[in-house]
Amino acid sequence: MQIEGKVAVITGAGSGIGRALALALAAAGASVVAGDIDAAAAAQTAATIGERALGVGADAASAAGIAALLDAAREAFGRVDIYVANAGIIGVPGLGGDSDWDRVLEVNLRAHIRAADALLPDWIDRGSGYFVSVASAAGLLTQVGAAGYAVSKHAAVGFAEWLSITYGDKGIGVTCVCPMGVATPLLEAITGAEDATARVAAASITTAGEVLSAEDVAAATLAGVREDRFLVLPHASVLDMYRGKGTDYDRWISGMRRYQRALNG
């Protein structure tokens, strides 16, 4: 995938990984629509990039918000070549209730499904298009303390797999990004949370491996897109963990229980 000259839409681009991806794509020669539910943050990202960028305030979990992002890209730059489904939330600690599940699934999963549904007709007609799903290592492994996050990220990985299998022969590229700890506002929020379960969830992330910068993740993602590679693992150790899980599931579950007990003191 050649990035130069392409048009990219990035959700959750007001901060963290989304902002780093917007800046990296622009530096690689793409025109960028930086979307975020925080319109001011989206505008600030776009202003940092300059004239080849547009900031749009939109809820990327809703069909209307996705339409606003795509319409803005087409009006400003003519088309959409790359869509980065990055916006995400960790949700409430523990099991949560119905409304908690509704929100985390809307943002972490249905946002991807709705975006693909809106993009695919044009991409199939053109025979090209690229979907980037920013999931999480939690989608391959799990997340201690946050059921909604673990389950929704598993589902996001599953949807990205289905999308690549179903439409790869029609010219649609898919990259699924699965980092562990990244220095973002999301991680900062749970690290300093009052809730003990949220703090344990944060500790499970920060002690599992190096906490990377958002720029590290953006660089790994762009490399994966250029190579048309499905799975991007910014933390190389995740691959060994994933292999270990698949080799002996019961041993892995037991190990995760021990890890959780250690984190709880």
Detailed description of the structure:
It comes from Mycobacterium adipatum. GO terms for molecular function: oxidoreductase activity. This is Dehydrogenase. The chain is an alpha/beta fold and 265 residues long. The chain has a single domain (7-263), classed as 3-Layer(aba) Sandwich (Rossmann fold). It has helices at residues 16-27, 39-49, 63-77, 98-126, 147-167, 185-191, 196-206, 214-226, 237-247, 249-263; strands at residues 7-10, 31-36, 53-57, 82-85, 129-134, 172-177, 231-232. Strands 3-2-1-4-5-6-7 form a seven-stranded parallel beta sheet, sandwiched between helices. Helix 1 (16-27) packs across helix 8. The termini are far apart. The model has no long low-confidence stretch (mean pLDDT 95).
Secondary structure layout:
Layout: E1 7-10, H1 16-27, E2 31-36, H2 39-49, E3 53-57, H3 63-77, E4 82-85, H4 98-126, E5 129-134, H5 147-167, E6 172-177, H6 185-191, H7 196-206, H8 214-226, E7 231-232, H9 237-247, H10 249-263
Parallel strand pairs: 1-2, 1-4, 2-3, 4-5, 5-6, 6-7
In short:
The protein is of the alpha/beta class and 265 residues long.
Assigned CATH architecture: 3-Layer(aba) Sandwich
Order of strands across the widest beta sheet? 3-2-1-4-5-6-7
Tell me, rounded to a whole number, the average pLDDT. 95
Total count of helical runs of at least 4 residues:
10
- Helix/strand/pairing category: alpha/beta
User: Globular, elongated, flat, extended or rod-shaped: what is the shape?
Assistant: globular
Biggest beta sheet attributes: 7 strands, parallel
CATH top-level class? Alpha Beta
Total domains, how many? Answer: 1
Which percent range fits the helix content? 40-55%
- What Rg do the Cα atoms give? 18 Å
Oligomeric grouping of the chains: single chain
Q: Tally of extended strands?
A: 7
**How is the CATH topology named?**
Rossmann fold
Residue fraction in strands: 5-15%
Cα(first) to Cα(last) distance is: 47 Å
Order of helices and strands: EHEHEHEHEHEHHHEHH
Spans with pLDDT under 50 lasting ≥5 residues? none
InterPro entries: NAD(P)-bd_dom_sf, Sc_DH/Rdtase_CS, SDR_fam
Family: Belongs to the short-chain dehydrogenases/reductases (SDR) family.
GO molecular function, one term: oxidoreductase activity
Keywords: Oxidoreductase
